[in-house]
Amino acid sequence: MIHSNLLVHPVLFTPSLSSMQRNKVTMSFSLKGYLKLLAVGCVLASSTVYAEEHSTVGFHGSVSLFTGVDGTNSVMDTESQAKITDYSGSQERQNEAVVIPFWDLNYRFDDSNEVYFKTDIVGMASDFYTQAGYRHYLTDGSNIAIGVVPGLLEKEVWKNPYQLQSDRTTTNAAVQGLVLNYDRVLGSDWSLELARGKYSLDQEDSLAALDRNSNLSYVELNYMTDLSESWGVEWLINYLDVDASGSALKSQRISTEAEFQLRNGRHITMLAGSVGLQKFDDTNPLWKRTREDTKLGVSATYIYAMPFDWKNTLFIARGGWDITDANIDFYDHDEYLVTLGMQYQF
User: Fold this and answer.
1) Structure pTM?
2) For residue 185, what are the domain limits?
């Protein structure tokens, strides 16, 4: 899944991406039990606000709202059938309407310091969560931010996804931790993210070797530049270590993603793709072999700035699809999402 493609905050009507500040807020999440939201990863570009405006004291940021249709095919998803009779992994696709909010709220104290509260989807969580923190801007054009992921938004999961012949019941799970971002390292086109946290369930009823409670470690390296006045490209690579309580779920994942942007006046078209490999450490006790997942994702986004000449607004249409192909069929997963939405910058 395209988890880490970035919501870049560029000056939309100027050609240079590399001179713009960026903040991550991508879209790929599942909030079963809270907002009933599910999305495939995508790339969004936003901001009609010039970087100079962000240096003024006071509040700035963005709020967004999207609506669309989502389809998921996964035994692990709590929208799938509660009762399963075998481990074939075969399920009917679940389709539903979705409403998806995002926000990125900041308060600037002076030229160099601000606090923020935002939704996010990238990094160690690989799911939708909130983050609050402090950001410091340096004179070379870079900025350093440290944030707390408090685990306010929980995800609905099965207590025991492997239970047969009776209805599975749900519990809540959340990610908590710390995130360190160094954007535009030394004023360059490179950015770095480091994160450490934990994934915990309210109630875990799986076998001991399949216990999902985990400590998470994450590192990401990102590069963003312009190919010409109209074309931009962004590339990243990330690594996630999952130190799960269950020996069969301890894993390491490496992923890479690329996004191309075409800018023409008020119009931006974006195409993105991702590929990842996740390897697990120990033999799965139910299938007597070690799990390995291959992940693929694609997305397309169209953005129109200032629809109806509304200042500081964006119209965004996007579609995405991703697939997890596991060597154990039970863990296979695919989903799509098509949405339309608006974003307002202030």
Assistant:
1) 0.84
2) 51-345
